[in-house]
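hiii, so i know i said id send this last week but things got crazy w the move. better late than never?? heres the sequnce for the chain we talked about at the cafe, plus the structure i predicted for it. fair warning i was half asleep when i ran it
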Amino acid sequence: MQFDVWDELKGDASDFAASNAATLMKILRDNASSEYGRKYGFDRIGSLADYRRQVPLSNYNEYYDDIIRMMKGGGAVTTSYNIRYYTRSSGTTGQNKVLPITDEWMDLYLKFSYQCTWQRTEMHYGEHFGGRVFLTNEMHITTLEEGVKSLLASGTAFARQYETGEEDFSYCTSPTELLFPETDQDISYLKLLFALRDADVIAVIGVYGHHLLQLLDVLKTEWKSLTEDIRSGEISDKIDIPEDFRKTLNGYLSPNPARADELVRVFEQGFDDPILPRIWPKLRVVMAITGSTFREYQAALKTYAGSVPYHCFIYAATEGFFGTPRDMGYEAEYILTPRTGFFEFIPAGESEEKLLEDASQLKKGERYELVYTSFTGLYRYRMGDVVEVVDFYDTAPVIKVCYRVNQQINVAGEKMNTANMAGAVREYMEAFGQPEGSFCVYPDMRTLPGHYLIFIEPEGEKPANEPERIDALLRAENYDYADCRNLGEIGLPEIRFLKKGTFLAYKQQMAATGQDMAQYKPVRILDDEKLGFFTEQED
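okay and structure toks below
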């Protein structure tokens, strides 16, 4: 078996700093003729010191006007690379973004995410295998008023393959009309229908872990209807889709009572035992992104997958691609990939003057804010991600994502991040023998001193309400919080338990307002506007 991408990554990891510096010089050379490149003298940069001296640190607001100009036909403003799509993102901060997607970005995305993951899967099993893939990505292509095409970043590489004819997607359970639908309505039922009828699925691939869980919630609710559709070979009339779309999809179906009976036997046994390998006995991997603040989703997916490896296959954002897991099944720990962009590091909580000279200064166990130069026209861009170096793969940093810079609770200067909160909630629920459940927190400044109002939706039984216990756990997670509590600057936290289904109901409410659900991330820190909804859902 050949593992070309993995071998390339191993070679780069032998001298991460040199490989990453070579990537920077390629980006600068390729974009020297862009308006941005001319402004900052890319053609005169010969070293990292030159780059830092000539090009300032940046954030999204500084690119917005230039990106809009490029969308309107303004030429090579921030990048000389060919821009094929633009993508919109809600962002973890809630700030709406529009960013260019270049051919170079898509090449790297396919290479270091899907191709690399597939090679790692075959290395894990020690064999080459083929089969069908249940690809759940949202890939509805729209045309914006500027005349450019737009879709989610995670679907752009596939969309290019589809539009250029590079790939026919015959390996997928869904027909192309369903993979790249003209409608942007929820088609989860239809994706499940085509996947369930195919017994030879070897991979279930999503983007975010909570999206896969929501798909499985649909399966729990609709399995009887889905199996009847498989039996009859026709989509149920209760599914509200355009009739021409229904006719097209029905053309791919035919009655399959044997498969329907097989699935009914599986579902009648319940969902407590790992269900995915029972539905698809050839299943080899389940792929979706989770992270330290979404651990409950990762745990739930592992429950569904059983012994089949659950793989956090990528560390990426709309801005770029940053890392690939060092092995199958690691807890969202990623090797930074030196060929997918240029990385700089600011020690967490420090000013930009403390920027490290290069990656060789990184220390295991320390946290850093990522600064990123991309293949999409972003230079020395402050991502807002704080990562921790958990190990090294040769000289390449292995990192986990801890929190967003502005995703912190700050009642009295303690800067409690969402990873700290997740750890405290997890340990609190475990103390009562319960799974973590979903949570969010409101920094309640209506009292003096201010305190944390913590909302928890239990997955199992509701535990006792013991604010002193979670207070102790928060003190252990965050020393500044402990100091503030000791000084009386923060009051004792409150715990409010929520009705089952609250977080799903909140997501549905957001969908009703027109928010792009494929980019939706579960709410963690509440503001005044969101507080009312969760207060009304108390159990």
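btw The chain has a mean pLDDT of 89. thought thatd interest u
miss u guys!!
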